[in-house]
Predict the 3D structure of the following.
Amino acid sequence: MKQSHHGVKTGGRMPGRSVGRVVQGSRHGGAMDAQAILLLTVQGLFGVASALSGTFIPVYLWKASQSFMLIGWYTLGQYITSGIIFWLAGKWVKEHHKMYSLRLGIVLSGAFYFMVLMLGQQAKTYSIPLGMLSGMALGFYWMAYNVVYFEITEPDNRDRFNGIAGILGSLSGIIAPWVSGFLITTLHGERGYKLIFTISLVIFGLAVVGSFWLKNRGVIGEKYKWFLGLQELKEKGNPWRRMFGAIVAQGVREGVFMFLIGLVIYIATKNEGKLGNFSLITSLVALISFWFVGKRLKPSNRRIAMLAGTIMIGLIILPLFYKVTYSTLLIFGIGTSLFIPLYIIPMTSRVFDLIGHSEESAVNREELIVLREAGLIIGRVIGLAAYLVVVSQTQTPAAIVTLMFCVGIVPIAGWFFIRPFLSANNKFR
């Protein structure tokens, strides 16, 4: 880790009162302070609200339209808009008040579900505008969240934070979709959807209230550099060139898996309750896995751990080639939940370690977080473009599974990009 001219580590937190000064070094033992716990709480509420309803949005649109293409265009609107908002919101977050961006993202998420609630079955007519509204919400929220996450964590506690965040995400996945699936099936469809969308609105409101206790840290006087990310990628030997490739590879998989899995499960079972049960089982496995990996993952073993994770999340798709049934989908889901922490924890931690590896890069954290998001968006659009091409030609189970396998093994390429940064003594030189 490089040292600043003040002789302290520049691994994470930045003060709110001075330019170019980095706060004290790491906490003893990688402990997290009250702000980190509060951020996890806000994220937990946001995750519960999103899991309650977000899991079923593709299913809701499918039931209204019976169209794979419509869901693809909805998702494309979401991805592209979120990327644009990330870039634009970077200036607001850097130069003004990042908590406004965080709260606006939560409020817009609530507005999205309110619009779906009001439109009902007519939501299919406005799929692209709805996708764009969802993208705006995600852009504002995650831009601010990622900056706050960077500021309140350090290299020695990021794996721990990400492990706990993964546990909270798994808990949300255990409880929320199961409750939603139960309510939808018990209340016979539309009434159940209206109820879960309403509950999500209330929980989003609680997340906004909780955010008022998060501090607005920042570097006063620094201006937002609109094209810093592009300059980083142009510079020969810059570590961001390799890291960006790894991020794009991550995005390719996410671009398809984030919406397609739940939809495939519903189409295979025609039962929202089965989708809720799937989420409950796989999230319980993920909770245990995130807890175990978060405790055991060390700089000395993360290279081989991440390689194993990337290979296994690709291979676990193979049972679906035999037959797409609830049982084979469950095997796929459990396997993915077991191995995804090995991939996602070191991937996330090392990206943010790179953002904080020097005082200069820490000061430019907003621009570099935008660069990270640009890589994810590019990857997601590539993956989604492949999906749109495939479903425009054929919608057979074999074609869908082949698509899933092709995008599912892309993270292996990401590991090749990031592997020099996974060793214990690498300093991003």
